[in-house]
Design a protein that fits this description.
Layout: H1 10-16, H2 19-27, E1 45-49, E2 55-58, E3 62-63, E4 71-72, E5 81-86, E6 93-98, E7 104-110, E8 120-124, E9 129-133
Antiparallel strand pairs: 1-2, 1-9, 3-4, 4-8, 5-6, 6-7, 7-8
Length: 140
Amino acid sequence: MSAPQVSKTEAEWRAELSAVEFHVLREAGTERPFSSSYEHDATEGVYRCRGCNAELFRSDTKFDAQCGWPAFYAPLAEDRVRYIEDVTLGMARTEVRCSACDSHLGHVFRGEGFSTPTDLRYCINGVALSLEPAQAPTAD
């Protein structure tokens, strides 16, 4: 694994993030289910890492998994995220982190039967993301 491109001290992270964002992004916490407006947001655009602004997911890979968190079937590119085996709750899961700043994003699950091209569900904390809406075409 290569070193994150964005490196900040704990004090810098705390100054830049809200308490909930810090808990999720830097302490691998989880926001409350059904608390993110992004779960059902249909806005077209790019979802970026709240910690470093790296582009992570596109709205066209987002789907309604009815799981309580925004769900995607693929990252923008595989080099945008990294994966860590997570056994903290007594079960094997795969944690998803931003490869640019090493912030915790959520988890990815396989084989749940969703009719998506990848059979994957990237279950991502909404507070770990910011949405950059697609630019509307300008009239000439």
